[in-house]
Amino acid sequence: MDLILLGAPGAGKGTQGALLAETLGTPKIATGDMLRDAVRRGTPLGLKAKAIMDAGQLVSDDVVLGLVREALSSPAAAGGAVFDGYPRNVAQARALDGLLRELGRKIDAVVNIGVRDDAIVRRMSGRRTDPETGKVYHVEHNPPPAEIADRVVQRPDDREETVRERLRVYRESTAPLVAFYREQGVPVHEVDGDRAIEQVQGDILGRLGR
Fold this sequence. Notes:
- By secondary structure, the protein is of the alpha/beta class.
- Helices cover about 50% and strands about 15% of the residues.
- It is globular.
- The N and C termini lie close together (about 10 Å).
């Protein structure tokens, strides 16, 4: 099964994608993770991406598609993949469709995880990171221990104004993917992501007939 997870930043795609990949026995394709891994391993695409990022530029769709092509060529992905955070826009969706057609495959379903903007702002703006360990805490749900409370920081991209801007960008570029896939006849499952992780996962699996 080739499955796309959609949802605004902070909606829980990463968490749900990892659980789905484990349950379905397929890899999770998260292009951000793949990009960092390719740079770390020094692959040809990774070196190309690093040069682009070091110049302060955005990695092109062609480079990202190349990473996706590599991932889908892996034996682990022969039975499908869970796409987390990709495609981000209709142009990338068309490119992915073309790549899957080359493999004799197609997107089987889309899961759109919906969470209210105010809930996402609370989730993300409440996050605090320990710069020494990289561990992430939350001021409401998982506050840092007292002994490190003075050193945890709020990442710039977790500030409320930044989160709201990311939500605006998401609505403009990524949200139209729902209409795109519906027009293609791909099943789009709307799932309420403002619940416990286990409830959301159970709902997704139920809608996928698993």
